[in-house]
Hints:
The protein is of the alpha/beta class. It is 31% helix and 22% strand. It folds into two domains: 15-44 and 86-118 and 271-345, FAD/NAD(P)-binding domain (3-Layer(bba) Sandwich); 124-269 and 366-439, FAD/NAD(P)-binding domain (3-Layer(bba) Sandwich).
Amino acid sequence: MNHAKQHYDGLTYPKVVVVGGGFAGLEVVRGLANKPFKVLLLDKQNHHCFQPLLYQVATASLGADSIAHPFRRTIGPLPNVAFRMAEVQEVLPERRVVRTNVGEFEYDILVLALGSTTNFFGNQQLAEVAMQLKSISQALDIRSDFLQEFERAMVLREENDLRRCLNFVIVGAGPTGVELAGALAEIRRTVLKREYREMDSELMRIVLIDSNDRVLKNFSEKSSANALRYLQELGVEVQLNTRVAGGDPDHITLADGTVLETNTVIWAAGVKGVLVPGLDKAVNERAHRYTVDRTNQLQGYPGVYALGDIALMEEGDAWPKGHPQVATVAIQQGRHLVANLLRSSNGQAARPFTYLDKGSMAVIGRGRAVVEMGGRSYGGVFAWLLWMLVHVVQLVGFRNRIMVLVNWAWKYLSWKNTIRLIIRPYVREGTAVSRPAALEGEAAPVPHQA
Ligand SMILES: Cc1cc2nc3c(=O)[nH]c(=O)nc-3n(C[C@H](O)[C@H](O)[C@H](O)COP(=O)(O)OP(=O)(O)OC[C@H]3O[C@@H](n4cnc5c(N)ncnc54)[C@H](O)[C@@H]3O)c2cc1C
């Protein structure tokens, strides 16, 4: 690790370009603040997104602004850090330049922390019909979609249309799928029962599908069993050892030929790294991540580092196939890279990264969660409280922490998801009963009010 100092704004500090202000990128930017580096953060969004709480935005428990934080507010007080809203399209390593939609930027050190995107494993049909949960706009789409389906169900006459409209299928029983299913089930037993009184809430189905033989397959068997029990207590229909083969706007087809009629499929069954052209020698095709050494440097590209979800680092016997794509890995790798860059600027050798696994957690509705920490597995209310504490502490921004706490206090005391607003309607082409036709046609009669 030997980075030549170059001219930049009259100062001879190395230019560090950080691409992606997620967990890893933000850690690097903050760590290099007020240090002898000129840092430029590039992100296609103008805000950091706290992805672990996206499902709460999707299910109307939190507003989008509670889990997002503008980069300009982060970098405002950091004199050696600049931000440009830019989508990186290519890296030209021979010229030490990144090409973006708003121009080219030179670097001495390049830190790639672009995260991951939904992996449909090549199934184009599913990619076209399924909703995703990787960004705030996708979370808002899901929120609008299920609220629109509820409103539509109130005016439908045909039972088949009604059932399809209220059948929510989630594919992938990892933490995202499990948390989403639990939250929708809570909505059925609270909001739907109280506020859509003319509707039979039992018509709403939440189906959670996974090709594995247990939910939360990366957790211990005990936690998986607890999570399954919690889901079943909430009325989620869990279908394990089940593969989804294809889909159309009004149904999905399982590998055994079974057809599930539904307007809403949410895909939470896999992610793949966001790779940009130009660094092909380091791409691991199978994992769809960049192969890096123990200092996160890309194989064959000195001065280029990849962190977090896009980095594939073999760590001896502990992580022979790379680390899990979770926030704690991204944060720790970001911190470690900062320490190594500072060591290098003092003429010291870089140290290899070692991941400290702090555990895993997933929440399943109100008062239920599974937590694995220190080799032990916890469940129930204790785990739920722990889950809330950890997530509030990790949020970026004091205001966001307060907002989330207030929202949760209100929600859990009042039993209401408050942010059920269709502000930006979700428009999907090709549903069996198109939205306008259903709403313009002859509506189901309104029963007499009590
Ligand atoms: C719904 C959901 C729930 C999750 N829950 C948990 C959890 O409970 N616990 C946990 O540990 N992990 C969880 N994760 C995983 C965790 O969020 C990721 O592992 C983590 O965000 C990875 O950090 P990162 O810095 O690598 O990338 P990210 O945080 O994804 O950041 C990537 C950044 O790069 C930017 N970007 C992407 N492409 C470009 C481009 N071409 N040009 C410029 N900028 C670009 C993006 O806008 C983004 O800001 C969850 C993920 C999701 C989606």
